[in-house]
Write a structure and sequence with these properties.
alpha/beta, eleven-stranded mixed sheet, two-stranded antiparallel sheet
Length: about 550
């Protein structure tokens, strides 16, 4: 069963809605999902599935959820809360249960009117990555203990998180199938969820079902995604709107929304000039510039202007450039990045992120970390890969998390859980299964001609159909994976009416892909989130009407 087309999953969403309306179980009590006996039997588990994982997920359905009570001090205020580990079954277009989302949710106790309290669904990227990084690094009431540089302490431990946003919103951490403890259930298969649309539709169905089961369909609902999770956050709103559930806000962290500005290819020039400001910021940080500017922000603004003017026109004309102009541009590039004029010329001005990561500290035998260009590691042996890890929160392919396992067992009272899967590697297109990036909603002259994806079109459609929807984007200046400048540029030019642009805000930080791993930026990041929740939709719609998205540098 390959449930990957938007049509099939849209029908599945409609069927899910009808089930929620017609099933007496839900009508009688919107707090309990279908029982494990309603088509989800462990005997159905095929040899290709981990029966123990299916059995555990089934045990969390209905009254099987596990809830414990806790207290934390956030921004000086005591917050009493329930932590719930639960499961929600999802169905396909034939109304068959094909998967179970397991989740960890936090709800503040003592709230007089829970229906009026915001609720936020948060996830990481991958694309098949679990939510543990956002959960234990920044958003949840418990977080990974770190030292002054933001690195996890040894041995690892968890501490109360005074910067959690649980004081402003209830939280549900989403682990897409088959990450975390979420699983596909026969006749479903994990590969059925390995595409942009099937993944997005399944997450949307989970959100809708969770809200219905909890009696929270009227609550202000937000979604927060990081990295690939921003793509998921772009497609989920329309799926939810098809179910009649509009969102109040979308929060994007390290956006990967405009593939035109990210993906490098022969003849595709955008990434080469859009990433130049990130190269400049990282070279400035490592003191690799011929002349070190005093003020980083002024320097970056200068490089941004150069990238979109002289550098862009030279790239378009290259190699048909006069000798004087060639020398002028190469000198500028050397001054802005620290890379030699010879290296730029030999590269035909097309220096990608991997080449920059290898070259900047080559004389020191170091290679930059793609997630955070301030970090580096020794150059790997010939034939090895480098630059893709080494920073705080780095994940290994098909990795499990002993810290999440301990947290579930020791603090949340879940003693029989299988290993928590943090990420499954599907990025290699030469292996099966791999991630299906096709997205039929993207405009194209011909459906058979591949296009670079721009998921801002999805967000634009959601904002046009729901003018109250607010969007906030957060980026790290030293991120070589999803750089700040192209993300800001693309967001500022999203195709929405000028009267909606006041609903968009952008923030850049002195950090990398996970900017919140820097202690000072964690405070700024969470303060910006708090302000986002504190700004009621009525005040948002009556705010500034200028056509430029607000940003905080």
């Amino acid at each position: 069963m390959k449930v990957q087309s938007r049509l099939v999953w849209s029908i599945g969403l409609l069927a899910a809605a009808l089930v929620l309306v017609s099933d007496a179980y839900f009508v009688a009590a919107q707090t309990t999902p279908p029982s494990a006996s309603s088509g989800v039997g462990t005997a159905q588990a095929s040899a290709s599935l981990d029966g123990a994982r299916v059995q555990f997920a089934e045990s969390l359905l209905g009254v099987g959820h596990r809830t414990t009570q806790h207290t934390v001090i956030i921004r000086g205020t005591r917050v009493d809360y329930d932590a719930t580990v639960g499961g929600t079954a999802i169905r396909d277009s034939m109304n068959r249960i094909v998967g179970i989302f397991t989740y960890i949710a936090y709800a503040r106790r003592g709230v007089a009117e829970p229906m009026n309290r915001p609720i936020t669904f948060a996830w990481n990227g991958g694309p098949t990555g679990a939510s543990n990084e956002l959960h234990l690094s920044v958003l949840g009431p418990r977080r990974r203990a770190v030292d002054e540089s933001g690195r996890a302490t040894t041995p690892e431990s968890l501490v109360d998180n005074p910067h959690s946003i649980l004081d402003r919103t209830d939280l549900v951490f989403v682990d897409p199938i088959p990450t975390g403890l979420s699983v596909a259930v026969p006749p479903g298969n994990a590969a059925d969820f390995y595409s942009v649309d099937s993944d997005g539709a399944s997450v949307a169905q989970f959100i809708y079902r969770y809200l219905a089961e909890a009696g929270r369909l009227q609550s202000p609902t937000y979604i927060l995604g990081e990295s690939y999770g921003t793509i998921r956050a772009a497609v989920v709103p329309e799926f939810l709107q098809e179910l009649g559930k509009p969102l109040s806000g979308v929060i994007l962290v390290s956006s990967a929304l405009d593939g035109n500005t990210i993906w490098e290819a022969s003849g595709h020039l955008e990434p080469y000039y859009f990433y130049l400001p990130a190269y400049a910021a990282i070279a400035w940080y490592h003191h690799r510039l011929p002349e070190q500017p005093q003020d980083l922000q002024t320097f970056i603004q200068e490089v941004q202007h150069f990238a979109l003017t002289d550098f862009l026109t030279t790239l378009l004309a290259w190699p048909d450039v006069s000798a004087d102009e060639r020398e002028r541009i190469l000198t500028k590039l050397n001054g802005y990045t620290g890379l030699s004029k010879e290296f730029w010329e030999k590269s035909n001005l097309r220096v990608g992120t991997a080449a920059f990561a290898r070259e900047l500290l080559r004389d020191q035998g170091q290679i930059l970390t793609i997630n955070d260009g301030r970090l580096s590691s020794p150059v790997p042996p010939a034939g090895g890969n480098g630059g893709r890890g080494g920073g705080p929160g780095s994940a290994r392919p098909n990795a499990t998390s002993s810290q999440m396992d301990a947290y579930l067992r020791d603090e949340l009272g879940v003693v029989n859980a299988p290993p928590y899967v943090t990420i499954i590697s599907l990025m290699n297109r030469n292996v099966t299964p791999s991630w299906d990036w096709s997205h039929p909603k993207l405009p194209s002259r011909n459906d058979r001609i591949p296009v670079y994806t721009n998921y801002l079109d999805d967000i634009a459609r959601a904002m046009k159909s729901n003018p109250q929807l607010r969007v906030e984007q957060h980026s790290g200046r030293y991120d070589l994976q999803c750089a700040a400048f192209p993300a800001d540029w693309a967001m500022a030019r999203m195709n929405i009416p000028s009267e909606l642009r006041h609903n968009v805000q952008m923030f850049d930080y002195d950090g990398g892909h996970m900017m919140y791993n820097v202690p000072s930026e964690l405070v700024k990041f969470t303060e910006n989130l708090v302000a986002f929740y504190d700004q009621a939709p009525s005040s948002a719609s009556s705010g500034s009407r200028d056509a430029t998205p607000r940003r905080n540098r």
